[in-house]
Specification:
- By secondary structure, the chain is α/β, with parallel strands linked by helices.
- The chain has two domains: about 5-45 and about 270-365, Aspartate Aminotransferase, domain 1 (Alpha-Beta Complex), CATH 3.90.1150.10; about 50-270, Aspartate Aminotransferase, domain 2 (3-Layer(aba) Sandwich).
- About 40% of the residues lie in helices and about 15% in strands.
- The strands form three sheets. It has a seven-stranded mixed β-sheet, with helices on both faces.
- Helix 3 (about 45-55) packs antiparallel against helix 11 (about 255-270), helix 4 packs parallel to helix 11 (about 255-270) and helix 5 packs parallel to helix 6 (about 120-125).
- The protein is globular and about 60 Å long.
């Protein structure tokens, strides 16, 4: 009898949806919820992007521009490449899928770190690959170890930079040494979803390798700093020979018309991006200082979120913060069982998080917590 689905799909883990804010309010009987679990831009989208969407709503009866003529050209100009080196995705998640579908032959190997963005492993396995996950070193991608693990059947290497969920980066020197060891028939994917938040001068110039026509694909998104997560639009930059193959996998009209219009306008609103970066800087300074007062360790970040060690009762902390109306990310699915991940919010949101965290920690220390809440079941979104 034929199998209904392939063994790869049968044994794959699911990518669960997140719980809506309204459901959290209903379940816990609270009026206000602070959402700090999905690394969204707390300032929202650019006013210019909102205006572009509003003015384009009447056009939704028409199909989107399948070639993304204007957006590709603006992105190409911004990054110093040709439009043929750009491919759009329904968020950068879809581009991860495109890459694996395009280049991975079933049985070949995907190499990445652990813990990192879960989709690399999920899609690698679903599409018939073997996934090799190299443990992080000091919460960062261990490129030296990863280089030693490249085998004859290795096809793709995924590097999240800054890494989700740790917020750390690989440095320019370490990346140069790593690329010097990567064989020419292996494709390196640099997922730079949080690129706009990076402040370190030691961040790798990945575009340099695109210009050298190396087998490298850079992923960027409008979901984070540009505040367009709900419209789902991301893009990849790569040598044209790679994007030409990926275009054969891409479904027609995958980037909707409102997303394209919003992205075009968002690229012009540099002031909004600078406000976003400044809010992130101020927020991190405040959260760092308060966590030190609470004697909680954390991983310094180059993104708009940070990983906080709250101890062996991290699951209780996560659940009690929910009861307080604070949505953070449980790290159990990343095997970081003493940690939570929190997005940097508006100043008042950051304060509410710290105040709630202080009450929860005090309750744990005094043994006065209400432990009647059910344990979570990985309902937080994997973003």
């Amino acid at each position: 009898m034929k199998r209904l689905v392939s063994e790869h799909v049968e044994n794959s883990k699911l990518y669960p949806p997140g719980r809506p804010i309204e459901e959290v309010k209903r379940k816990y009987g609270i009026e206000e919820v602070v959402k700090l679990n999905s690394n969204e831009n707390c300032l929202g989208p650019s006013p210019m992007a909102l205006k572009a969407v509003t003015e384009s709503v009447r056009e939704i009866y028409r199909y989107p521009d399948n070639s993304a003529f204007y957006l590709k050209r603006k992105l190409a100009e911004k990054n110093g490449v040709s439009p043929e080196q750009i491919i759009l995705g329904n968020g950068s998640n879809e581009l991860v899928q495109f890459i694996i579908m395009t280049f991975l032959v079933p049985g070949e190997e995907v190499v990445t770190g652990r813990p990192t963005f879960l989709l690399y492993g999920i899609m690698g396995r679903v599409l018939g690959g073997r996934v090799k996950e190299i443990p992080l070193k000091d919460f960062s991608f261990d490129l030296e170890s990863m280089a030693t693990q490249i085998a004859k059947d290795t096809k793709l290497i995924f590097i999240s930079n800054p890494n989700n969920p740790t917020g750390t980066i690989v440095t320019d020197d370490s990346f140069r040494r790593f690329m010097g060891k990567v064989p020419g028939d292996v494709i390196v994917v640099m997922d730079e979803a949080y690129f706009e938040y990076v402040t370190s001068s030691d961040f790798p110039e990945s575009l340099e390798y695109v210009n050298k026509k190396r087998n490298i694909i850079i992923l960027r998104t409008f979901s984070k700093a540009y505040g367009l997560a709900g419209l789902r639009i991301g893009y990849a930059i790569a040598p044209a020979r790679l994007t030409s193959y990926m275009e054969r996998i891409r479904e027609p009209f995958n980037a909707n018309c409102l997303a394209q219009k919003a992205a075009l306008a968002a690229l012009d609103d540099t002031e909004h991006v600078e406000r976003t970066r400044e809010n992130n800087r101020i927020g991190l300074e405040y959260i760092y200082a308060q966590l030190k007062k609470l004697q909680l360790s954390f991983v310094p970040t180059q993104a708009n979120f940070l990983l906080v060690n709250v101890g062996p009762k991290a699951d209780t902390v996560y659940r009690m913060l929910l009861k307080e109306g604070i949505m953070v990310r449980s790290m159990s699915s990343f095997e970081l069982n003493e940690h939570i991940r929190v997005t940097v919010g508006l100043p008042e949101e950051n304060k509410k998080f710290i105040d709630a965290l202080e009450r929860v920690i005090e309750g744990i220390n005094m043994g006065t917590l209400d432990n009647s809440l059910p344990k979570h079941n990985s309902e937080s979104i994997f973003l």
